[in-house]
Amino acid sequence: MNTKNSKAWMILALLLFVLFLGSWQLVSMSLKNMPGPIPVAKTAYEFLSDPFYDNGPNDKGIGTLTLYSVSRLTAGFVTGSIVAIGVGVILGLNQVLFKACNPFIQVFRAISPIAWMPLLLYSVQNSNWTALLVVFMASVWPTLANTAFGVSNIKKDYLNVANILQMNPVSKVFRVILPAAGPTIVAGLKISMGSAWVAIVPAEALLGSLGLGYFVWNEWNNLSLTSVIFAILVIGVVGVFIDVLFNRLARRLAYAD
Amino acid sequence: MALLDVDRISRYFMTAGSKEPHCVFSDLSMEVFDREFVAVLGHSGCGKSTLLNIIAGIDYASKGYVFLDGKEIIGPGLDRMVVFQNFALMPWLTVWGNIKLAVKAKHPDWSRHEVNAWVERYVAMVGLTGSESKRPAELSGGMRQRVGLARAFCVEPRILLLDEPFAQIDALTRGVIQEELVRMWEETGTTIFMVTHDVDEAILLSDRIVLMSRGPSARIMDQIEVPIPRPRGRTTVIEHPSYYKIRNRIIRFLSEGTVEKEPAPSVVSLSKARRV
Hints:
The complex is a heterodimer of chains A (257) and B (276). With 257 residues, chain A is mostly helical. Chain A has helices at 2-30, 37-49, 62-93, 95-110, 117-124, 127-152, 156-164, 169-207, 212-221, 225-253. The radius of gyration of chain A is 22 Å and the shape is globular. Chain B is globular, with a radius of gyration of 19 Å. By secondary structure, chain B is of the alpha/beta class. Chain B has helices spanning 48-56, 95-106, 112-125, 141-153, 171-188, 199-205, 241-256, 266-275; strands at residues 4-13, 22-32, 37-41, 63-68, 71-72, 80-83, 159-163, 191-196, 208-212, 220-225. In chain B, 41% of the residues are buried. Chains A and B meet through helix 7 and helix 8 of A and strand 6 and helix 2 of B.
């Protein structure tokens, strides 16, 4: 039964993939100049066979560009997450503060990180820093909201045990509060990472910071739709890869009550 | 002098929709002596867990004081370990990790080797050798409470506070763990304050039973010495001539709320005499 099921979904996924390629091919035949799967595959092969070439400041291999985007993402995401988890723990432990801050968090969370871009660019006057700050803004809010919620819902028993054991504040946070709220925090991190990855593409495109988003826009300006489609696929695949990493982290931190 | 001295404590709290504070208990006093095993018995909701929490320092008295070794209790501390009814184990830690957490809190200066040796000793004491790497979710209720007991005993507190520790454990396992608890209590020479609503458990385990009336405004109505010699077995204890006398006295109190006019002046002195 189980093995049969596992085969069934794989066959279905393969069928969907074929369906996708087929409809793409149909669209490309009916739209003038729209590349179909085969030219894109050729382009992909070209790009992927030399992923780290360097032909000057604005022409680099797809591997290099991905690394640019991912490292920008990592830097903004890590700093944003540290701030979010730190503030989230403080809010989670203080109900009054949490209630007072919650409306603001909800408002900030609803704002697309891209909407901040003009303000940020005006403030820091540097496109690379602005791109980083956009990722930071995208990373903070879901993690902050989830951390505060997770910490405020920790079972009172765990905190009682920590108090009875007279744990100092640092070990209380790292040995009890963070592991107890861990699964909720990781769920927040996952949402944050998703929105950061979504935000980084337009940020790089608009700011001209070297990376996958920049590549998409540059190839559009070169009227190379084949490369644009290839870049889109790369963005999707990298996103899936990141998500897998977070699912692993979530599984490690999960606990059965 | 008593090890634990509860001195006229009251506990009030405000309830929604009422201007009068709700009184859990007022002017409640009791003593626990060194190496004694005392059970506080009362109906569910009579405030006995509140009393235990105040002694533990995780709740506070609105009025009055609690002294341990002559020092006033103002918060939680490693000299009073609690064993919780719902175990309160950290579910993300293994058996080993849960006990180690307590050992490291008590002895932050110990080397890894010393910590591990200590943990191992208490894992063995509760008979969990072989299950060290299991998480609480993989354990039965009885095994979880063994971890809870090991965690409490391993910091060697002045007094152990047990909050209905066996209420969530199936009857067959309960008897085994009860006997183990008594063995550990005797081996370590510690003092135990236990809250329970199980009459047989109180008689089987304790030196003295403190009867608490129903809340609100609960009071200590009576104290009964249990003169049955140790070791007591689950099956032999009922053969002792005073077993049913004590049991009936408690049952009558629990069902009718009345106390026999047989004051127990010897309660405190008897208890001292036996244990010292």
